[in-house]
Design goal:
Layout lengths: L3 E5 L5 E5 L4 E2 L36 E2 L5 E5 L5 E5 L8 E4 L6 E6 L6 E6 L5 E5 L3
Antiparallel strand pairs: 1-2, 2-3, 4-5, 5-6, 6-7, 8-9, 9-10
Amino acid sequence: TSTVLQAADVSRGLLFWDLQTMKQLPNAFALRNAHWSTWTCAVGWAVHGLDKPDDDPRAVARSSRGDVLLAPGKSNALHLAKFPVLPGAKVRAFAGHSKPVTSLAFAKPDDHLAYSAGGSDAAILQWAHTR
């Protein structure tokens, strides 16, 4: 489904867009079993087990292997969990930022490095991920 974009609106509703026609897709149910090549949407069934941070998460990043997810957590922590993140999932928390994390990414094609950026702390941190 590299022709479909998934996004969330301010009410945390999921929206889907056909990138060829540039039109919103009205039937989200039709995409319930879609395989997504990336996952950066902070809303959806695959991330509904994330703890809500102090703020709604604005950024998540799934590894290119599709097996782990990074997300901002409470108290400016960075959370790492197996993907999909279902309720009750084990989540590891890492400290490093003094303000909320606003952007996350895994290095490609090798997922052993990840990056997080803080908003008002102006910090960009590099993390090593080993399996």
